[in-house]
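request received
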Amino acid sequence: MTSVSVIGKGITKFGKTNQTIKSLMLAACREAIVDAGRPKVDAVFVGNFAAGSLANQEILGSVLTNELGLGNVPSVKVEGACASGGIAFRQAYQLVKSGEYETVLVAGGEKMTGIDTKTVTKAINLAMDNDSNEGASGLTFPGFFGVLANRYMYEYGAEKRHLAMVALKNRKYAVSNPIAQFRKNTSIEEIMEARPITDPLGLFDCSPITDGAAAVVIQKGSLGVEILASGQASGTPLMQEVENILHMPATRESANDAYKKAGIEPEDVDVVELHDCFSMTEIVAIEELGFFEKGKGWKAVEEDLTKHGGTVPVNTSGGLLSKGHPIGATGISQIIQIVDQLNNHACNQVDNARIGLAQNLGGTGAYSTVHIFKKKGA
Amino acid sequence: MTSVSVIGKGITKFGKTNQTIKSLMLAACREAIVDAGRPKVDAVFVGNFAAGSLANQEILGSVLTNELGLGNVPSVKVEGACASGGIAFRQAYQLVKSGEYETVLVAGGEKMTGIDTKTVTKAINLAMDNDSNEGASGLTFPGFFGVLANRYMYEYGAEKRHLAMVALKNRKYAVSNPIAQFRKNTSIEEIMEARPITDPLGLFDCSPITDGAAAVVIQKGSLGVEILASGQASGTPLMQEVENILHMPATRESANDAYKKAGIEPEDVDVVELHDCFSMTEIVAIEELGFFEKGKGWKAVEEDLTKHGGTVPVNTSGGLLSKGHPIGATGISQIIQIVDQLNNHACNQVDNARIGLAQNLGGTGAYSTVHIFKKKGA
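response:
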């Protein structure tokens, strides 16, 4: 079995910037290549969702490869909504594992600010099935996850304050993360009383609009944090076809795929980054990833089981909610936080972290990737 | 060495249609799956350039996978400008060859008509590096290839009529292709006198705006036409960085990579589909692919060496110029024509075709893929 490991990483500050997508992504890529010790790169995989609509730029694979001076190596952009970064990483990993390439640069990025809200909202909705009555009716992502949250509270007895607890935890973690978009301390009261976005979700329950880029270099061998397994699954992009809105089959199936390949159980995971596009999504994800029983995620949050000292610390980077959510960059930034944790120099370091997991969701459950990592030499 | 072969194909009529990108692509996918004998599909790769900008739809991987009822299998959209289809095919092939998947559906599509010309032109220009003075100055694709054509004529003594001969050949082939966009016979005079687009290129020298979709099913084993090799290279997306505008390094390097892996020489190729986005591009490509010496491609065209009975018949489908160029579909449609040739039931069938080659270009040389195929049992 060929080992593949993460040997370099680079990430920009997440937030609002005047930089272009090209300059953001170049910054992250250069940092990753230098961090990896400037190896010969055999291919470039780019995760990006909507630069065509938001940043007037496709062909990011070629643009970055050329500007970085990497020569004529194969390059490509990969799109899978908010899971674009996770899918790009997966493909690069699969092709290194198979021996097709030895060293690959994987970069993710998105430029979302400085554009009028209507254009951004329309671009985000490209991750719905728009050739459907749902697309025509104007269903949005906060709308979908708001329905999910209401149903969850009705079925399992959770309350709005449990959503707020997730947002507060992630904000507290973000305070220590130098690249996070929101680093100002807050309180449960401020979160509960914030401007409503879609009932029951308030401003702090929703991930923000963010610019940012992240990149990693992966390589055959055991020089860095080892990639133990990759899982990916698709799910329906249509709300009307969801069998049970409280389940996210793509999340569950991508996780089961990865656990099986890695030969581990959820109990073996020491630290997790997961896709908290909304506070509610984090609660469903900790259930679907097998850390807590279905319907008990809110209880785990109430009992601090997703913090340091609990069952498993979740989103120690601040998560999408407070670190920010530059769509194409998100999946790679999650992996960087896990790599930092397993290298023992993360913000909000988890003691003795040996196994880490990163989960990246696309759309309302249209895609999910799960990657499992192991500390070097562990 | 694992064999991988093309076991099913589906393609829509190319041209103007009122269908959505989803319905076009579903039609091609369903035809391919039925043609393949309805195998269990393990993953879906979609090649598409700009559906976000042109068709209000991203997440085509998930949309198609769900609508086709393929379950929770991994899916993704791959973008590499006009080479999106070729790159999607390559990735699927690499992952079947490596044993990651056994059977994969690869679909390409684009919906380009019914939209105002300004929007379409802007979308096509997403395949330039727009964070550059070239992007700002408004360089277009006809502009780039017009400069190339003028320089080629100046250096090598070719004339406008040699460009017209390429366009005429491809139109004559398209007349016999039931899915081609333009099937009306024409003459060298009509082509020479057609409306100028950018000097020296006239209307018939430029590929059209087209809707269409194409799909193939590939599988481990030797059930169908065998995929012998895949080559891919990147090149600069900036005109100012092109060392010699008469060379297309990405085309040459992707071809050399593929020849080497297949263990063949250009002389072994019996039939070719290549990326004639402009008539001029075909002449450069037959040189870069090694069929004719640099600067002699126009002579080969004059001497009918790219037709039946010549050195190697090129673009027997009608090519992008007359079959049409629905961007994401193009790379897959080229492969379908080669597969049909090697299965001995193509339009404009080449007698005893045993080895075929398909070359797909992205941008002004930003990407190129080359795939080499072998007749079943040959």
